[in-house]
Amino acid sequence: MALIRGVRCQGGWPLIRTCPRFFTAVVVMALPVAFAGPPSPDETPVASSPAQNAEPLAAVPAGGDWRQAVDRIRAEMSAGRYADAAALADAESVLHAGIPLFDLTGGLAHAGAGRPAAAAVYFERAVLVEPESRRARLELARARFAAGDYEGAQRHFERVLGEAPPEVASRIERYLAAIERRTAERRRRSEGWVGLAVGYDTNVQGADDPADVEIGGIDFRLDQEQDGDAFFTVDAGWRHARPVTARRGWEVEARGDYRGNADVDGYDLLTVGLSGGPTWRLEGRRVRGRLEAQETQLDGEGFRRTVALAPVVEWTVAGVRRQAGGRLYRAEYPEVEGREVYGVGFSGSLARQLGKARRTVFGGGSVTAERATDSDYDYYSRDIAGLFGGVAWVPEGRSTIAVHGAWQYERFREEAPLSAFWGSQSNDFDGDAERAHTVRVGARYAYTLDGGWRWSVEGNGTEKRSNVTLREYDRLEVKVGVRYGW
Predict the structure, then answer these.
(1) Which of 157, 186, 215 finishes a domain?
(2) How far apart are CA 22 and CA 130, in angstroms?
(3) 283 φ, ψ to 5°?
(4) 118/174 same-domain check
(5) Which of 155, 186, 217 represents a domain boundary (last residue)?
């Protein structure tokens, strides 16, 4: 039932859309108000519309078939068929766009179908006709919020805030707080760091113990020394992220690290890398389209150069952070004849926080196929599979403890030309390509100081076993370091 007070425009009621300020009215009716698929509860101030207690929207005088269109749209929504309701609203909007109640109903249909941008178009028309309607303006604000237009949402929320009842005002304040958090996340972010560490490595070259091999019926002893040495590392980097819109942006990162040994010559390493690309936020997922370029130098000479396309998708389901990525790359070794390879790999990981002690368990795996670009050097082609996992926890606000482990299996496709001189574990080489597995375990403790400083101590152990004896090794490394970030 409706109570209507209005003034006819010249030409009668059918010209209502050309005379939008001809009336004021009150319509008593119940309308669906909740969006389908709102943002997650920890980020969304309320699950239902803050306009529930606002005044109903003004309507037009009786007459015409717009009411039948509204009834049909509402019937579809009541049955949960929001997509059908939205399609019906679009079809009827040719005749009824500009009627506030029709536009409000059509906007709610699109909102329920998970189309906040389309809903905002309908609510905008209702607000243009009835600018004093809090209901239409609050629905418009919510639609803009859901569509990521935080500036527009804030403008409409603030316009209504001063006149809203206490309960509605409280909900609007929560929306405004959420807008502040999200816009802060969208601002440009830059960070940099520089670190220094010292430590000891029991096997700098990754060499095996002396091995006895048999070549042509003659026993030979090949001596490979395991040289332990003290070392130092210096690393630095810079990362920048810049949003372009609520859902698009880009990021770039540059980093480098140098490791020098005290006494062992020929194994100083320098690695520099540059990566970056566009980012997107799509239906609760973050997509990063990364391009990477990296060069590693061994004792001042080019050792490995890599370029890669490495997209990553990140999302959270039921409290579990998930990540999946791919990597397509090309690598060359300037000092090794014929060693130019291309590869493709896939990886995935899971992480979940447990309990109030802020414990996080994580794990994942990867597979990679690497092939030589020249078939004459196919002995550089290999397949790799790996698993990793661990736990990290924060016993108190400044400390972090982590324990981790990894396993990797590696299989080369062909026997290397000099494999016969390396021997197998049984000292009777079987003539097959290398097959090896490597296990790594480690632990780390870090403590954050005031002013951006952090110090850490960590230890890592590696064991590689292979059917080629001289490619086996054991290694233990410990180091302590400090890093400054800004």
Answers:
(1) 186
(2) 10
(3) 50, 55
(4) yes
(5) 186
Q: How many angstroms separate the first and last alpha carbons of the chain?
A: 64
The answer to whether the beta carbons of residues 114 and 81 sit under 8 Å apart is no
Q: Identify the domain containing residue 220 by its residue range.
A: 189-485
Q: What pLDDT score was predicted for residue 3? A: 30
Tell me, yes or no, whether 200 and 59 share the same domain. no
Largest Cα–Cα separation, the chain: 114
Shared domain check, 311 and 383: yes
| Total domains, the chain | 2
The Cα–Cα gap between 484 and 448 comes to: 10
Per DSSP, the three-state class of 96 is helix
Task: Give the containing element (helix H, strand E) for 110.
Answer: helix 100-112
**CB 49 within 8 Å of CB 138:** yes
Shared-domain flag, residues 366 and 404:
yes
Q: What is the C-alpha to C-alpha distance for residues 110 and 255, in angstroms, rounded to an integer?
A: 46
> What is residue 421's predicted lDDT score, i.e. its pLDDT?
41
Per-position b or e across 440-472, b if 16+ CB within 10 A of its CB: bebebebebeeeeebebebebbbebebbbbbbb
| Whether residue 220 sits in one domain with residue 163 | no
Domain check: are 205 and 171 in the same one? no
Distances, alpha carbon 370 to alpha carbons 99, 176, 336, 416, in Å? 64, 51, 16, 15
Quick one: which H or E segment has residue 160?
Answer: helix 150-161
40 burial class (0-12, 13-18, 19+ CB within 10 angstroms)? exposed
Phi, psi of 336 (to 5 degrees): -120, 115
pLDDT averages per 10-residue partition of the chain, 486 residues: 32 34 30 34 36 42 71 93 93 90 94 91 92 90 89 88 86 87 73 96 78 46 69 96 80 96 90 95 85 92 92 88 96 85 96 79 97 86 96 86 97 69 42 86 94 94 88 92 95
Whole-number Å distance between alpha carbons of 113 and 143: 12
State the amino acid at position 93 in one-letter form: S
**Which helix (H) or strand (E) is 330 found in, with range?**
strand 320-332
298 and 422 belong to one structural domain: yes
The rounded distance, in Å, linking the Cα atoms of 367 and 347 is: 7
Indicate the residue type of 456: S
Question: For position 87, which CATH number holds?
Answer: 1.25.40.10
**Closest C-alpha to 443, from 391, 481, 407:** 391
